[in-house]
UniProtKB/TrEMBL annotation:
GO terms for biological process: carbohydrate metabolic process. Residues 39-106 have a biased composition (Low complexity). Belongs to the glycosyl hydrolase 17 family. This is Glucan endo-1,3-beta-D-glucosidase. The keyword Hydrolase applies. The keyword Nucleotidyltransferase does not apply.
């Protein structure tokens, strides 16, 4: 009798602690259960030694990633924690088509005072703004269902493992001239750049350079673009972007940055994206220039571990579902910002360094039979699984910002920054996607091209630069991808 009571008390305490742990680490649920290293039973195993890239055990750029076929430790079963049921979007019908307003001077809309009010305004906007005109699809968009949550695919063969860097030209002092920056990019075989705004001081330098561009639309422009007339949006694109750079160099328009974290901008996001798409249609470049909206993955996913169980934050669904529907209808990717450094330093007792830096020699866990050796793959697949649960498993994922700082924290070193960057480059060179989408390679933008000394926040946030202001590399890395 005493033994039975002791067992019951033990089980009660175990599950109570498990629930408390899950609540404490909700933003990082992704990492609560995976092992700290591959074989050590120590509670604090030593991190694998970090050496120069020339002696790194990472696979060579010309070889494919072979972690799925290597022997693994005992898999972590997720069967005891079933994935949440798919979240239905049927309760929020698609907006009915309406014509775009011809007014060129939109009246200002009141600013929301809370996130709930912002969501309500966003839903109201979806009922009134103009709908996009899309070519007939061979198959309708999937409706949310249990089957759709298991369907992960890439809806475009054009998504390849291309590498780029982010550049916020006006946020850094003493930078080289725009022409030197363009030459620096070309010298180092960097084919793509993400600009955070159509900055007239740097954009013209890219004209005719052969460098593809993701051009950001600043958050403060969303209110105008969400309600302006078609002619006004076309004129804005023509004067701010296409007057400075060739249309065929622009691959993405990135509408806002982390808009879902900014209450006042939420109602304008999807309406602005739709109006921009209509403007691109009128210019006959909508097939070439895709429209997306970069978001920090940590701010939009409520559950992320295991990847197959990932779901979006329920509070964001009234905006996320129309956003994903737009991306699916136009063939555009979901753009996510990944910050593995922050994940590691905030959860050093739960996250293995070799898992974050692409240095694990064998899978650290398995999810529905898929082997995972690194945080990058697991993060991308978590986003894909969350979309699939809403019926949008065909939407690709582009990593619009990722990197590792070189200073500002004891874990921020040039060696670790080089190891992370080399892992990204090796993955790109292999042409292999993620475990859940092996045929859909992931496009990645490093953050940033230069350190941002004037940036606020924590000290390490200023030191993500790949280059120094004198044009030399901040750490040892080659951006050449043999397959390109």
């Amino acid at each position: 009798m005493i033994m039975a009571n002791s067992n019951s008390l033990y089980l009660f305490l175990f599950f109570t602690l498990a629930i408390v742990d899950a609540q404490l680490y909700t933003p990082y649920t992704f990492f609560n259960s995976y092992p700290l290293g591959s074989t050590s039973s120590s509670s604090s195993p030593p991190s694998p030694p970090l050496t120069s890239l020339s002696s790194s055990p990472s696979p060579s750029p010309s070889s494919s990633i072979s972690s799925d076929t290597s022997p693994s430790p005992s898999p972590i079963s997720s069967d005891s924690s079933p994935s949440p049921s798919p979240i239905s979007s049927d309760s929020s019908p698609s907006p009915s088509p309406s014509s775009m307003s011809s007014s060129s001077s939109p009246s200002p809309s009141p600013s929301p005072s809370s996130y709930g009010e912002a969501v309500e305004m966003s839903i109201g906007a979806l009922d009134t703004f103009s709908s996009i005109s899309l070519p007939p699809s061979s198959s309708p968009s999937p409706s949310p269902s249990p089957a759709s949550s298991a369907t992960l695919s890439c809806n475009s063969a054009s998504f390849k493992a291309k590498i780029g860097v982010c550049l916020n030209y006006t946020a850094v002092d003493n930078l080289p001239s725009p022409s030197i920056i363009v030459q620096l990019l070309k010298t180092h075989n960097i084919p793509r750049v993400r600009l955070f705004s159509p900055d007239s001081t740097i954009l013209p330098a890219f004209k005719g350079s052969g460098i593809d561009l993701m051009i950001g639309i600043p958050n403060e422009k969303l209110a105008f673009l969400s309600s302006a007339s078609l002619d006004a949006v076309v004129n804005w694109l023509s004067s701010n972007i296409f007057a400075s750079v060739d249309q065929n160099q622009v691959t993405y328009l990135a509408v806002g940055d982390n808009v879902l974290q900014k209450v006042s901008d939420v109602p304008n996001l999807v309406p602005a994206m739709r109006n921009l798409h209509m403007a691109l249609q009128s210019l006959d470049v909508d097939d070439q220039i895709l429209i997306t909206a970069p978001q920090a993955i940590s701010s939009i996913l409520r559950v992320t571990f295991p990847p197959s169980a990932a779901v979006f934050d329920a509070d964001l669904l009234p905006v996320v579902e129309p956003l994903l529907r737009f991306l699916s209808d136009t063939g555009a990717p979901l753009a996510v910002n990944l910050q593995p450094f922050e994940t590691y330093v905030d959860n050093a007792l739960k996250v293995a360094l070799n898992y974050v830096l692409f240095e694990a020699n064998q899978p650290l866990f398995r999810d529905e039979g898929k082997a995972y050796t690194n945080l990058f793959d697991a993060s991308v697949d978590a986003a894909a699984a969350a979309m699939a649960k809403l019926g949008f498993g065909n939407v690709p994922v582009v990593v619009s910002e990722t990197g590792w700082p070189t200073s500002g924290n004891r874990e921020a070193t040039t060696e670790k920054a080089a190891a992370y960057a080399q892992g990204i480059m090796n993955k790109a060179a292999s042409g292999v996607g993620t475990p859940a989408r092996p045929d859909c390679a992931v496009e990645v933008f490093f953050s940033n091209m230069f350190d941002q000394s004037g940036r606020g926040g924590k000290e390490y946030e200023k030191h993500y630069g790949v280059f120094k202001v004198d044009g030399s590399l901040a750490f040892n890395i080659s951006f050449a991808i043999p397959s390109e």
